[in-house]
Amino acid sequence: MGLTYPILLNIVYSVVSFFLALRLISSAKAIFMKAGLKGKDMSKKEKVEIPESLGVVCGTVYLICMFLFIPIPFVTKWMEQDASKDVVFPHNEFVEFIAALLSICCMILLGFADDTLDLRWRDKLVLPTLASLPLLMVYYVTFGSTTIVVPKPLQFWLGQNVNLGFLYYVYMGMLAVFCTNAINILAGVNGLETGQSVVIGISIIVFNVIELQNECCWKNHLFSMYFIIPYVATSTALLYHNWYPSSVFVGDTFCYFSGMTFAVIAILGHFSKTMLLFFIPQILNFLYSSPQLFRFIPCPRHRLPKYNMESDKLEMSLARFKESELGFIGSTCINVLSKLNLLTVNRNVGEDGEYMEINNMTLINYVIRLCGPIHERNLVVLLLLIQVAGSCLGFIIRYKGAKYLYEY
Description:
This protein is mainly alpha-helical. Helices cover 64% and strands 8% of the residues. The chain contains 15 helices and 9 strands. It has helices spanning 4-34, 55-69, 72-82, 91-117, 121-142, 155-158, 166-185, 192-211, 218-242, 251-268, 272-277, 280-293, 328-339, 363-371, 376-401; strands at 38-40, 49-51, 147-149, 161-163, 306-308, 313-315, 318-322, 345-349, 355-359. The strands form 4 sheets. It has a 3-stranded antiparallel β-sheet with strand order 7-9-8. Strands 1-2 form a two-stranded antiparallel ribbon. The protein has a two-stranded antiparallel ribbon with strand order 3-4. It is globular, with a radius of gyration of 23 Å. The mean pLDDT is 89.
């Protein structure tokens, strides 16, 4: 039994959760529509209203699965070994498990509040921070290490190890904020939020399977497996309904739920740097979007691709503004990106030629810029292939490139 028994039951629970989520999402559509949680898919010829915020159903099924799984790795094992009087109940691991579920549960609740109340962007930054506090407190009590290994090129100045102290907790809090919002800003076409999350989840499973062979840290990756397998199962069920042509919208709830799950796994599994390697497309999207996100360049409320009803294809969406509205940083960003051929800039636009236009700065619009007008389904497939390529690059960096930075 030992190691395989909890994992096998976790897989069984996950399979059941997949079919349960599949069924409940179908059943919940009418309830959400009746409650007014609905929206129009603007990238379709027929602007039919479909239910949104169905990510809360996915998150709820996930929590049910994890609540039922709690006794398996702890109580059952402890009771089996109690007869020998050799093993003490693993209180630290149990507290970590419960705190992780608490943070995920809080994030689902706060995400659903965002979907129903339409919170401001600055609130979206505060919510993940609040939800991660139980997690950080448990990390402090049970593990508490804030020492990192310094890459070899910097060891001459910093030494082999550096204790970051409080800054390490700031970093972990920022990781939770990044994971939740990085998925949220790379969105806008059917299946993209769930698709990228499922690809990241599968990448984590593969990484955990590889690292389970490592005697020094297999428990951390076993802990990660307990959380990520049910997540992939329930998210795949949601992806089935969210795939083109989508019959549901996932809402910010799913983005928050996904991001916090990844942050929990990275922090308590002790592989936060590797987790970021699976977010390469999201990091590139964030860096590319930063001038608009930080308002150096005017940013419209929605930066979705523009739908051409005649061709049934998506085109780049544009942001129009007066050049006089730009400050020094904004003008510099536009000039540098246009010279690097990363931005389309149209000047002297409008009747009086007083406006300028640029493509909205998202990875989605940049892909359309490279490929030209493209059907929504093909665009999603292409973006998910980029996500897969990003994960492959992450594995190469982790297992091939890291040897040049760290001692082995």
